[in-house]
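Exercise: predict the fold of this chain.
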Amino acid sequence: MSPLPWLKKAKDQGCNLIVSHHPLIFKGLRSITGASQAERAVILAIRHGIAVYSSHTALDKPVGITTTYFMP
């Protein structure tokens, strides 16, 4: 699913934060030109001051925490 409708809705409602499970960007961006859907989403968020917090990646990165406490 494209993040653009959610970002546009946040912009229209005057929101400055989106909390999501999955991140907008799964692979790093070398540039932000608007060529891809992810780049267009980043541009829209930046232009309208919308921060995006994605908990999925925050829980996946710490070594030993998710495997120790969340997975038997």
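Check your answer against the key: The chain has a mean pLDDT of 81.
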